[in-house]
Design brief:
The complex is a heterodimer of chains A (about 110) and B (about 120). Chain A is mainly beta and about 110 residues long. Chain A contains no helices and twelve strands. Helix content of chain A is about 0%, strand content about 50%. In chain A, strands 2, 5, 6, 10, 11 and 12 form a six-stranded mixed beta sheet that branches. In chain A, strands 3-9-8-7 form a four-stranded antiparallel beta sheet, with no helix packed on it. Chain A has a two-stranded antiparallel ribbon with strand order 1-4. Chain B is built from no helices and ten strands. Chain B is globular, with a radius of gyration of 14 Å. The chains are: A mainly beta (about 110), B mainly beta (about 120). Chains A and B meet through β6, β10 and β11 of A and β4, β5 and β9 of B.
């Protein structure tokens, strides 16, 4: 089965709407969890990360909390902007997966003005 | 400072030809990774290098794929006898260390390979 499962897109929102992109993972041990973002025409870049249970990663108004009990790392933002339009990837590293990043399929976010 | 660079940015090749993709990691980064991103899918791990240790090749999809890295510098990914299913964006990343610490992987812009 998939190691990282994230919400299918595309997700289309109006500016200032609340965003949630769900991500769940399958792992034994304690992987580190990441959200990467790929803006149009740009390379993949790290958005935020959390390395242990109950940690909250945050950056640019985005947040995600490492929930071991639900094996989830959902990405949230209170008020999206048009400039947030991008593809968002949930990923994990460590535990049984070693040092390579294991990615979800990606979720396209489109924000309309 | 300079980020990870990859060349070429785009490559169109005929089925059956060999291609070579290049990655220049960030200077001082000891770990280097190759990933593949097929259209509409997430990234698939291919191979990684750490210093002079034997590379982890566990993600290479077939023996047509190989990669080399000289020391802690440039890496080349070679695909022999390309097939249409090899069409994808090939991404390179580098990081300071390949240990269990959560060192960030910095990604290059990718090479878009199209096999016709």
């Amino acid at each position: 089965g998939n190691s990282v499962t994230q919400m299918e897109g595309p997700v289309t929102l109006s500016e200032e709407a609340f965003l949630t992109i769900n991500c769940t993972y399958t792992a034994t041990g304690y992987p580190s969890l990441f959200w990467y973002v790929q803006y149009p025409g740009e390379g993949l870049q790290l958005l935020l990360k959390a390395t242990k249970a109950d940690d909250k990663g945050s950056n640019k108004g985005f947040e995600a909390t490492y929930r071991k009990e639900t094996t989830s790392f959902h990405l949230e933002k209170g008020s999206v902007q048009v400039s947030d339009s991008a593809v968002y990837f949930c990923a994990l590293k460590g535990g049984e997966y070693g040092n390579k990043l294991v990615f979800g399929a990606g979720t396209i976010l489109r924000v309309k003005s | 400072g300079a980020g990870v660079s990859q060349s070429p940015s785009n490559k169109v090749t005929e089925k059956g030809k060999d291609v070579e993709l290049r990655c220049d990691p960030i200077s001082g980064h000891t770990a280097l990774y190759w990933y593949r991103q097929r259209l509409g899918q997430g990234l698939e791990f291919l191979i990684y290098f750490q210093g002079n240790s034997a590379p982890d090749k566990s993600g290479l999809p077939s023996d047509r794929f190989s990669a080399e890295r000289t020391g802690e510098s440039v890496s080349t990914l070679t695909i022999q006898r390309t097939q249409q299913e090899d069409s994808a964006v090939y991404l390179c990343a580098s990081s300071l260390d390949m240990g269990q610490g959560s060192y960030e992987q910095y990604f290059g812009p990718g090479t878009r390979l199209t096999v016709t």
